[in-house]
Structure formats: structure tokens, C-alpha cells
Amino acid sequence: MTTPPATLRRRTFTLGAALATPLLATLLSACGRTEAPAAPTASAPTPAAAPAARIYTVGTDAVYAPFEFQNERGEIQGFDIDLVKAVAQRAGIEVKFVNTPWEGMFNTLAQGDRDILVSAITITPERAQTMDFSAPYFDARQLIAVPAASKVQRFADLKPLRVAVQTGTTGDEVVSQLLGKTNPRLKRFESTPLALQELDAGGVDAVVADNGVIAHYVAHHPGARFKSVEDPSFIPEQYGLVVKKGNAALLAQLNDGLVKLLADGGYAEIHTRWFGAAPTALPGSVPTAAATAPSSTTAASANP
Ligand code: ARG
């Protein structure tokens, strides 16, 4: 069993502690109450004659179901998309989504091509040096996908195996720590679906990626050929919305929208839409009244 390296261990508390505090105070007061027959937050109309100064461009790597993906008609959908739409509505800003490959995504902010990024992006201290994160909006951790018959029981079991990850993700980080950054058995792909395709083709023995995405893949893959394996050594991660470093005004608007969304029940509704249940803990690991319910992320996986 590996001890998480110091660099990884440091990741969690930065914004979770700093930024989430005011947010969570609001949340705590909100989560005690039972939602009345749910205000129609999803279908609430956008403000009619808003001055609409500008439309903010949101970049998203839409190959990460159920967080962001394209449907048959090419429309970008997912938990993250609904979340940003709802946040924008509450913040009184207009947004449009543009599919943006993960690789190079962060550079689009500095170039001014994108104003906001949403892509199940984990808040890390390294990233926070070059971009600004909103308060955390989703709790996640790494999860392992292996063939159903695999003997892998924990992360350390991957050490002698071939493992696929998406380049430059936190999954890449943890597997790099275990196997060594330049190990030829560590196969990097530009998207997580490509990594999973390699698993499907038998080219690798495992994929390590965010739990929501792995659980979704395992649950929806025909023939129950894959299973997911958890490991307690994976440190908790949190997703944040991203803006260009120093764009304090936009960041404040997003955080304001997020606070409102969490407080008015919209967040729970969107979570239920995509994960089949209200969150058991609000972002930042504060347990909710629903904390006794089965974990939302494992609920989606067929046979863990
Ligand atoms: N949460 C992970 C990270 O921040 C993976 C995110 C990948 N998201 C995507 N849409 N491809 O590194």
C-alpha cells in the first residue's frame, strides 16, 4: 500500500478550506431543510431583458460523461453543463459552451479564447498558481477500471501492470507516482474514452480516472466486462470552475451563483438528474441530511 506523496496530499485543503468556508456556511443552513415540492429551477426562464453586456465563452472537454459529453445531435450536455448554466442564471450572466480539447485547454484562458473552463477540473495547488478556481462544486476521487476477471484489489496491484490514463490529469499524476513518469507501461491518451478503448481492446490492464467517469463507463459497458476497484489511498479531490488568473470579477459572480444554486436546491436537483440521487455530502465534504443514503458515485456502478 502506498502512502500518498506529499505533493498529492497537499491538494485537498487549499480551496476546500479557504474558499469553501463562506459557501459552506450558506450550504449548512440550506441543507437542513427538506426541499419542498422543488421549485422549478431547471425550467426557470432566463431574465428577459437583461442588459446582456456579453456572453462568456465556456470551454469544456466534452468527452467525459456524465460530466460533459456530446449527444447524437452534437449538443454538449452533462452535469457540469447544467451546473454552469444554473450558476450563470443565478449570477445573471450569459454563457455559451465550446468544445475544447483537454490538452491546451488551460492556455485558452490566457489567450482570451475562453472565459470559463468547466471539465471536472480538480483543484490543485499547482494549477492554482496559474489559474483561478471557484469554490469547490463536486467531490471526487480516483477509481480503477479493470476487466471483470482481474485480480487487482488495490492501487498498488497496478505496479507491474500496463495502465492507461488521460494525459495531464490527476489520474496521470497518481499513476506516474506509482509506476514512474517515464515507465513504458504507463500509456497516456488525449482523452479518457481513448484510454478506456485501449482497456477494451486489451492493450492495457487498467485505467485510472475520476470515479464518476469510471463508474459510468463500467455501468454502461455492455456485457459487464469491466469492474471498478476503489483504493482508500487515493486522496479526495474537488472540482472547481476555472477563470483566468486575476479575473476576480467573473470569479466572484461564479461563486455567488454557486452559493445561490447550493442554497436554493438547484444543486441537489442537478445532482439527482445526473447521478440518480441527491449528494450525500456537499462539496467540501460536509455531510448532508442524506448522508446515510448510499454513496451517489458508487450508485452508478453495477458491481463494484
Ligand atoms: N479531474 C481530473 C483532473 O482535473 C480529470 C479531468 C478530466 N476532464 C475532462 N473533461 N477530460 O485532472
What does this 3D model show about the protein?
The protein is α/β, with parallel strands linked by helices and about 300 residues long. It folds into 2 domains: about 55-140 and about 240-300, Periplasmic binding protein-like II (D-Maltodextrin-Binding Protein, domain 2, 3-Layer(aba) Sandwich), CATH 3.40.190.10; about 140-230, D-Maltodextrin-Binding Protein, domain 2. It has 12 helices and 17 strands. The strands form 5 sheets. Strands 5-1-6-15-7 form a 5-stranded mixed β-sheet. Helix 7 links the parallel strand 10 (about 165) and strand 11. The two termini are about 20 Å apart. Mean pLDDT is about 85; it is low at about 1-40 and about 285-304. The chain binds arginine. Arginine (ARG) binds near residues 68, 102, 192 and 210.
Short summary:
The protein has 304 residues and is α/β, with parallel strands linked by helices. Helix content is 34%, strand content 20%.
Helix and strand layout, with pairings?
Elements: H1 6-9, H2 13-18, H3 20-31, E1 55-60, E2 63-64, E3 68-70, E4 76-77, H4 79-91, E5 94-99, H5 107-110, E6 116-117, H6 125-128, E7 131-133, E8 138-140, E9 142-147, E10 163-166, H7 170-179, E11 186-189, H8 192-200, E12 206-210, H9 211-220, E13 226-229, E14 237-239, E15 242-244, H10 248-263, H11 266-275, E16 281-282, E17 286-287, H12 296-299
Helix pairs in contact: 3-10, 4-10, 4-11
Residues 61, 64, 68, 102, 119-122, 166, 169-170, 192, 210 line the site of arginine.
Subcellular location: Cell envelope
Family: Belongs to the bacterial solute-binding protein 3 family.
Organism: Ideonella livida
